Amino acid sequence: MSYKLQFAELLPYWNVLLYGLVFTIVLTIVSTVVGIAVGTAGAAARTFGPGWLGRIVAVYVELIRNTPFIVQLFFIFFGLPALGLKLSETIAAFLAMVINLGAYSTEIIRAGIEAVPKGHIEAGLSLAMSKWEVLRHIVLNQAFRKIYPALSSQIIIVMLGSAVVSQISAEDLTYAANYVASRNFRNFEVYLLVALGYLLLAMLTRSLLRALGRVIFKAR
Amino acid sequence: MLQFSFWDILSNLLIATQWTIVLSLIAFFCGGIVGLVLLFMRTSRIAPLEWFTKIYIEFFQGTPLLMQLFLFFFGIALFGVEVSPWMAATLALTFWTSAFLTEIWRGCVEAIPKGQWEASSSLALSYIEQMRYVILPQASRIAVAPTVGFSVQVIKGTALASIIGFVELTKAGTMLNNATFRPFLVYSLVALIYFCLCFPLSWWAKKIEGRLNVAR
């Protein structure tokens, strides 16, 4: 190999890459919070809601889970303006992430809810707790404890998937890498650096979520 | 100006779908073979081999598939080899698939009771023989459902090959959209075709899983 890797060429662009990193982190955090809220609502609708609502949620979940994220993103960013709904690339990226994680977390949380023994719900109702109180204190409490590891890995998968939003020029870490590569033509160096950045981010997210889980689900 | 009717769009998309299917099959089978080799290494209890596979899996599961595609596309070129999008996509998807399959299968191997290992080693079977005749036949039974489930991820993963210029379903959709300016129709059709490819597999995986639970 006659080519010499030149990482020093990336130094002048540190602020571009840092901006991209912050964008990716914010994108992940916001879509995680909103996406899990959507997923909780979806799972509750599927298990406790009326039949028609459950079926709509089921169609939403299957549609999202069986199509690639990039197609969902293109549909939202390029397809929806044809119906008169024009979104900026940042909003479209956030929306696509929320819709995607919402579908996956609906399915994960539903599995957790169904694992809660029926007797617990009946016991709660017989203690004159309202339906909401039962859902909040008995069902979701136990469900989240059970599915927390699965949800954590889904969050990391979604964070890695967010690299795709660069394709509608939302300014995330991958967009920054493409930008730098187009300026100094050190493609391999910048992609290697950014790939390691993602790896570090994934490992950091995993240990942070594990620590958070220990705090939230402290042994009673 | 050339006009595209609905049927022109659909037939062009279906032609490109063939490439999505071919790429998925290659990635899945080559990934399966590499994954099987890695599985033997990962469960071999030989420290350097285990460390290598751990780092390998960590890298391919911890970085975006898109980055891996870029790295293969631009990385191989550094050796002075001409890289086609076809080659970069095949290699990246194969390695990415193998990392996930190894982890899935390792879980299945570890689900086999320890007594099976002990019994077979007391019968003087070598490690390879233990895996071949005792462990894998049992592990493969529980591995079918998650493996079929993962094949859906592979099909969806091939959509990213469009970004490095491999013409498959997603790329064809983008090109047709540029020619027809009917993004809503084109991307709806693209999504629908992906759904028709993936949903039967998801459904099948769920069905196998259900059958296993009944058996228990």
Automatic annotation (TrEMBL), chain B:
InterPro entries: AA_ABC_transptr_permease_3TM, ArtM/GltK/GlnP/TcyL/YhdX-like, MetI-like, MetI-like_sf. GO terms for molecular function: transmembrane transporter activity. The keyword Lipid metabolism does not apply. It is found in: Cell inner membrane; Cell membrane. The chain crosses the membrane at residues 20-41, 62-80, 184-205. Residues 17-205 form the ABC transmembrane type-1 domain. Belongs to the binding-protein-dependent transport system permease family. HisMQ subfamily. This is Amino acid ABC transporter permease.
